Amino acid sequence: MTITQMETFLKIAEIRNFTIAANLLGYAQSTVTMQIKQLEEELGCLLFERLGKTVALTAEGERLCEYAAKMTQLEREIRLEVPTVKEPAGILRLGVSESLCYQGLPQVLLKYKQQYPRVEIQLSFIMHDTFPAQLKKGMLDIAYSLNPPTEYGDLDMLYDRPETLGFYASPEHPLAKKKKITEKDLKGIPLLLTSHNCSFRHMLLEDLAEASVTPHIALETSSKEVLKQFAINELGVAFMPDMATRGEVQKGQLKKLGWAGKAFPICARIYVHKDKHVSTAIRELAELIAESEE
Fold first, then answer.
1. pLDDT in the model for residue 86
2. Per the domain annotation, does 77 fall within a domain?
3. Which distant-in-sequence residues (6+ apart) come within 8 Å of 68 by Cβ?
């Protein structure tokens, strides 16, 4: 089995379609089909069930995913670390919470690219409940997350910075006229919240339940931009990270409400898996992020 076969297998497992996977990888479909056939023959098992135009992983295919991800991760590490060059080179897979992209991360990545042009950063958004497994499986090399302070026994933390959450509304909203609000003031107020698997949403709903306040959820979305636009247009109160709203607050489009209820601590942290070799490429990226926030 080869790294190329592993990469093809993982792409099909992600897309669940041979034709689309072939196009994304730049191969003819016949090439992709042959790679998987050879891999199945070598392993002596079926990896995919063909269901019309889509495919589904078999139990054996599910088990191979973790090993294939680790093999491709190790190949990336080899290319980054082994060649005797003055600077890192290769692919670095970075997972990041969407909210962290509203501040200085794009500038950090630009600076990193200027310093290390031979490193290709593949960026993807992460959720708090899935990124630890992605690090463990080798799907990510490094994660930059914004979540409540949580301890992960199988992850090492390279950077930690406290951040804050807030309630935001149009300056014309009735609650914007109050100096202080608490959980009771949110009773009957349309709330604009992040999606079901977001830790911010869980923190707020647990707090409201403890205060015996039934939430009126008007909108659920993973898009912070949509939350802000709904709040600007007086369609509710958005609960989201402060860093994602600074531009709208400065323009007078949104106002941060004076919250006097329960605190909602969150942190921006950089993680790698505890067994992960912290390469020069990873270490330099973590240091640039830390320096940008000093």
1. 64
2. no
3. 6, 9, 10
The rounded distance, in Å, linking the Cα atoms of 285 and 294 is 15
What is the domain extent for residue 188? 165-263
Residues 251, 184, single domain; the answer is yes
Roughly how many angstroms between the first and final C-alpha of the chain, as a whole number? 46
Helix (H) or strand (E) holding 240: strand 237-241
The alpha-carbon radius of gyration of the chain (Å, integer) is: 23
23 and 101 in a single domain? The answer is no
Place of tokens 């295919």: 61
CA distances from 158 to 73, 142, 283 (A): 19, 10, 8
Q: Is the dihedral of CA 64, 90, 132, 206 positive or negative?
A: negative
Look up the pTM and report it: 0.70
Confidence category of residue 215, pLDDT binned at 50, 70, 90: very high
Q: Are 184 and 61 members of one domain? A: no
- CA nearest neighbour of 215 among 178, 185, 170: 185
Angstrom CA distances, 10 to 27, 45, 93, 130, stand at: 14, 16, 15, 17
CA distance 288 to 294: 10
Tokens coding 242: 């402060």
CATH of the domain at 58: 1.10.10.10
Residue 75 lies in a domain: no
Residues 54, 186: one domain? no
> Of how many residues is the chain composed?
294
- Are both 158 and 292 inside the same structural domain? yes
Q: Name the amino acid, one letter, at 101.
A: C
- Per-residue pLDDT at 83 exceeds 70: no
The answer to whether residue 204 sits within a structural domain is: yes
CA dihedral for 122, 128, 132, 137, sign (positive or negative): negative
Give the Cα separation of 242 and 253 in Å (integer): 14
User: DSSP alpha helices (H): ranges in 211-255?
Assistant: 224-232, 246-250
Closest CA to 205 of 197, 196, 191, 215: 215
Residues 92 and 155 in one domain: yes
Residues 124 and 95: beta-carbon distance below 8 Å: yes
